[in-house]
Amino acid sequence: MTELSTKFNPTEVEAGRYDKWLAADVFKPSGDKKAKPYSIVIPPPNVTGKLHLGHAWDTTLQDIIIRAKRMQGYDTLWLPGMDHAGIATQAKVEERLREQGISRYDLGREKFLEKVWEWKDEYAATIKAQWGKMGLSLDYSRERFTLDDGLSKAVKKVFVKLYEKGFIYRGEFIINWDPAARTALSDIEVIHKDVEGAFYHITYPLTDGSGNVEIATTRPETLLGDVAVIVNAKDERYQDIIGKTVMVPFVNREIPVLTDEHADMEKGTGVVKITPAHDPNDFDVVERLNAQGYNLPMINVMNDDGTMNELAAEFAEMDRFEARKQIVAKLDEMGQLVKIEKMVHSVGHSERSGAVVEPRLSTQWFVKMDELAKNAIANQKTDNAVEFFPPRFNDTFTQWMENVHDWVISRQLWWGHQIPAWYNADGEMYVGETAPEGDGWTQDSDILNT
After folding, report:
1. What would the pLDDT profile of 315-357 be if each residue is shown by its tens digit?
2. Is the CB of residue 409 less than 8 Å from the CB of residue 362?
3. Which residues form the Aminoacyl-tRNA synthetase class Ia domain (predicted)?
4. What Rg do the C-alpha atoms of the chain give, in angstroms?
5. What is the pLDDT of residues 409-431, one digit of tens each?
6. Distance between CA atoms of 308 and 429, rounded to whole angstroms?
7. Closest among 270, 271, 272, 276 to 295, alpha carbons compared
8. What letter would DSSP give residue 102?
9. Which domains does the chain have, with CATH numbers?
10. What is the DSSP string of 163-192?
């Protein structure tokens, strides 16, 4: 007779038991046509790392439910799967590469993706082992990964369908830009933090020699991309300068003094510099002014890595924050720095890289949100309304939908669903589930936001 241990040893007791369950197919659907079906799709964990306590808690609750339904005679399926998690996983792999002294650009797209698949295989195996440790009653014969062929085909099909209906389009707008990851970000990928900054009060000379105008900015490096200065049409202080021009420091660009409602008479000096390629409000101002026939340009003065580009005059190739210091110092030397007003303000940071986000004019793919938002709001007044707990969050939802703007869905990354659009040398674009016939077509290098 085997002597029982005086202490319970779970490792010894559980050894091999989960493998026996899987070998016996006890977690697969019964196939009983008379039984009511009941299924759960596991919220797919990202392959960015190991499962944590939150995963254990959530999957334990699901396991309790699916086992109870199985014992009640339902034909049950608990479908496992994992999420490729585009930007999150790519950020992890790039971090590992940096520790080796290389970047994804050193490897190139194909070799880099090989590294990401290696990462995926490593952490997918760890996640499955953790599921096994918890004894989750999953049907692995149906396991899915979000980059599987079937799911990839579904993504392409939906993209093309929404494009054909006019809900997806390609356009140039101000977006959140991560200069470390070198990609666009959605609003929810931006974390706002309070940091110490400053209002830099600067004078621009009127070109007719009649004086100066004073503006205030938190980002003086962007003045190199200024295309106008605005005042409020009702501001009596500036009636005599409307229509005149001022000179932008360093780049010697003559820009007009115009009027727009964006200029707040009660805020600062009431004079606002307009940099449409680096500020969403300024972009909107220029859109309005150009609709009036002003034909103002959009001047982007930064590279995608946060350094200043060739349009930044003597500050070209400098890091944006170094350029800020240099510009402020030189403005002081020139007598055009009035004062520096220290303050704490909210600054957007990338959720993944931690870099300060740069508002940047960029060509991206977007989902048109106005009609979708209107339909979502209207649905809340029907019997099919989504019920929020606590109910006050219905007001939050409505506020979000009323203030929504078009959603940027493209990312300048390599790990993910590549956008099913192709371009040729004639400037033509083709959107389809498969590549167009003929030679000379190049697929869009961007991937879709996950």
Report:
1. 999 999 999 999 999 999 999 999 999 999 999 999 989 999 9
2. no
3. 17-431
4. 28
5. 999 999 999 999 999 999 999 99
6. 31
7. 276
8. -
9. 10-147 (3.40.50.620), 161-187+356-448 (2.170.220.10), 190-350 (3.90.740.10)
10. HHTTSEEEEEEEEEEETTTTEEE-GGGEEE
